[in-house]
Every structure is written in C-alpha cells, then in structure tokens.
Amino acid sequence: MLPPSLRGGLGLVAALAAVTVAVLGVMYAGHSEPGTVDRWFVDPTADSVSPPWRYVALAVDFLGEPAGAAALVVAAVAGCLWLRRPRAAVLVVAGATVAVGTTTLLKYVVGRTIHGEGNLSYPSGHTAFLTALALAVALLALGRTGPGRTAGTLLVLGVALVAGAAMGWAQVSMSAHYPTDAFGGWCTALAVTPATAWVVDRIGDRASGRQGPHQD
Fold first, then answer.
1. Closest CA to 163 of 64, 70, 56
2. Are 109 and 22 in contact (CB under 8 A)?
3. How many CB atoms lie within 10 A of CB 126?
4. Tens digits of residue pLDDT in 31-65
5. What is the separation of C-alpha 160 from the centre of its chain, rounded to a whole number of angstroms?
6. Cα–Cα distance between 140 and 83 in angstroms, integer?
7. Handedness of CA 30, 31, 36, 37 (dihedral sign)
8. What are phi and psi of 51, to 5 degrees?
9. Distance from first CA to last CA of the chain, Å, rounded?
10. Among 212, 211, 216, 187, residue whose Cα is nearest residue 201
11. Closest Cα to residue 154, out of 10, 18, 19, 15?
C-alpha cells in the first residue's frame, strides 16, 4: 500500500504534520476563543454560512457523521475487494479508525473548546476522517498506475488537500470548528495514515511469507 519510492517523501510529510499538530495543540491548549490565525479567515462574531452554501456544507459534513462515514467506508471497502486489493480494504478501515481515534484522544489532551466547555474542537475529527479515507484511495490508485516518486507524492498530497479543504470549509463555515482545528485534523491524517499503511504492509508481508505467495 505504501510504494517504496514514496516512503521517504511521505515519511517526511508525516513527521512535519505530526510536529504541526503538536505545536498547534500546545498553542491552543485550554483555549475557548479563536486565535489570531483563525481571525484571519473567519469573523468569530458572524453566523454560519447562509443558504444555498449552507446546504452544501451540510452535505459535506454528513460524510463525516457516523451514517455518512460508514457508507463511505463500506463503499470504499467494497471497491477495494472488487479490485482484489484486500490490503487496501484493510487500510481504508484502519486508516480512518486511527485518524478518528487520534483526533478524539487529542481533543481530551488539548482541551480546546468552541461554543461552550463541552464542545471539544481541536483537532477536527471530520477533517481527519475524510483526509485519511482520501489518502487510502490515492494510495490504491498509485498501486495501479505506478507513477514516479515526485508525481506520486504530489498526487497523494493533492488528493489529501482537496478532501481536507472540502471538509475543513464545511466545518468552519458552519461554525463547528475553528480554521486551526480543521488544519490540525488534516495534519493528523497526514501524520498517521502513512504510518498505518506501513504497518498494514508489514503485517501483510509477514503473512504472505508464512502462507506462501500473496497477490494484493
């Protein structure tokens, strides 16, 4: 799932993303107001986006809700199995689970809130989920097309950027998250998904070594 030619580049991206998540977490730990960077992008006193864009935001947001997320994962897994890529199916489930689990844990560690003490906001789990899923699909596509190192890295990051930007916009436009929350969720997915793909490859390689040739 993680082509050898991309391991170095995506490993560096993952490391930088992890550092970014940690730095932002320290900066906004215990805060309940938008920071300076957040105010560059949104007016904290303004209401959420108005129709018709609110309907678009709600539709994108649904993809990160339990029902929408489950539907996306099932569809992605079914596609992977149809293409006879069981390892990719495992990454879809594992990548999304690890990304959401990591953001959930970080929310309690950082303790940043929005709209009240009970609404933990950093980092955005919705943004992390959709980005992680997009990364898994991009890695599957790379396995079938086999582009070079530079093109492959740009493709993965481009797909992740589109997915993260779409969900991040939806969360911020509905005042569910601050912009830095969405960015932190995006970086969380960039940090954990390549590592998850590497673990899936290691386990898959060991299993095929014990059980004979394995085609994925």
1. 64
2. no
3. 27
4. 988 898 998 887 765 667 778 899 999 999 999 99
5. 7
6. 10
7. positive
8. -60, 150
9. 9
10. 216
11. 10
